[in-house]
TrEMBL record:
Domain of life the protein comes from: Bacteria
InterPro entries named among the record's database cross-references: ArsR-like_HTH (IPR011991), HTH_HxlR (IPR002577), WH-like_DNA-bd_sf (IPR036388), WH_DNA-bd_sf (IPR036390)
Boundaries of every HTH hxlR-type domain copy: 12-110
Sequence intervals crossing the membrane: none
Pfam families named in the record: HxlR (PF01638)
Native organism: Brevibacterium sediminis
Keywords: DNA-binding, Transcription, Transcription regulation
PANTHER family: TRANSCRIPTIONAL REGULATOR, MARR FAMILY, TRANSCRIPTIONAL REGULATORY PROTEIN
Stated name of the protein: HxlR family transcriptional regulator
Gene3D superfamilies attached to this UniProt entry: Winged helix-like DNA-binding domain superfamily/Winged helix DNA-binding domain (1.10.10.10)
Length: 164
């Protein structure tokens, strides 16, 4: 899913990672899928992305091993949605670190509020992306919630391979 050149064969791991993750939509899709929003219509609506762009990104993410298709019931019909793979779940520390970075280095828009990264296993807010700053445990998607005051909601993340 190269954006510029094909960097998949580069020795530099940063270039190889950007070959897969360099498009901002990719990390936003991973974020939503980890929050259990893996249905096409949920992704389109929540991200405000066109169907064509979303279809291309999802196809690329399937090919890159970030997502897998999962069945879900829609009334009497069985449809397919998207769930995070282990590769996508391994992006959680990066997403959380990006969040912490933005909290520190960008201006919060009016009406917003501090997004807390809550480690549900110990109940504390963590100030680190990979390991809980309160209890020292590795942070897994199924043990995390993101407290979003601008939505007045605390959203629990989903383990890899699941669609809520």
């Amino acid at each position: 899913m190269a954006l510029r050149s094909d960097w998949s064969q580069e020795f530099c791991p940063v270039k190889r990672s950007l070959d897969v993750l360099g498009d901002p939509w990719v990390l936003l899709i991973v974020r939503d899928v980890l929050h259990g929003r893996g249905r096409f219509d949920q992704l389109r609506e929540n991200l405000g992305i066109s169907e064509a762009v979303l279809s291309r990104r999802l196809s690329g993410m399937l090919g890159a091993g970030l997502l897998t298709k999962v069945d879900y019931a829609d009334g009497a019909r069985i449809r397919q949605g998207y769930a995070a793979t282990e590769a996508a779940a391994d992006l959680l520390p990066i997403l959380q670190q990006l969040s912490l970075w933005a909290e520190k280095h960008t201006e919060l828009p009016a009406g917003g509020g501090h997004m807390g990264l809550i480690h549900e296993a110990c109940g504390a807010e963590t100030t680190q992306g990979e390991v809980c700053s309160a209890c020292g445990q590795v942070l897994l998607p199924e043990d995390m919630s993101w407290d979003k005051p601008w939505k007045d909601v605390r959203e629990r993340l989903q383990p890899a391979g699941t669609l809520s």
